[in-house]
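Protocol step 4 of 5: obtain the predicted structure for the target chain.
Materials: sequence only (see below). No template structures provided, no constraints applied. The aim of this step is simply to have a reference model before the mutagenesis design in step 5. Sequence pasted as it appears in the construct record:
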Amino acid sequence: MLYGANTYIRLMEESDVQHKVDWFNDEEVRKTLNVDFPISVVGTKKWLQAVSANNTRCDFIICSAEDNMPIGYVGLVNIDYKNSKAESYLGVGNKTYWGKGHASEARRLILDYAFDHLALNKIYSYVWTENEKMKHINQKVGFQIEGTIRKDVYYNGIYRDKHIMGILRNEYKK
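Step 4 output (structure tokens):
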């Protein structure tokens, strides 16, 4: 487990599957994601078993330190040790905890893990161009917008643009 002042992250376990299914199937949360819907408990359990053996990713659950409640998810995927980089994802699925600083703290915890434990040089993240909250969270810890991928994903009847945001180890402000 990795601890912050109000938040900690821990590896995802099978007992977290129902939380993830509930979050991903919530219409308001779903707007920020790029996954097929709906997702099921059975499918998510199979996914977790498959990815838990994959050494190119780490999937964590974000928990509130105050009440140990699972509130979201954060992780690294496409870990590329040769080029010393990885893609990061993040979401707070429990809307009761939105706007309380847990996402920013979880973002810092995953960056600490990536830069200090895995010794990576770069972390990048894809963010929908209209997702101002996620852009703000990323910029708050030092991410920069490196570019825009135009009309990249067809979702809910429209083509959506996304930014690629990145941060280098020597830019990271602890």
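Step 4 remarks: The longest strand covers residues 144-155. Strands lie at 2-3, 7-11, 58-64, 70-80, 85-92, 122-128, 144-155, 158-168.
Proceed to step 5.
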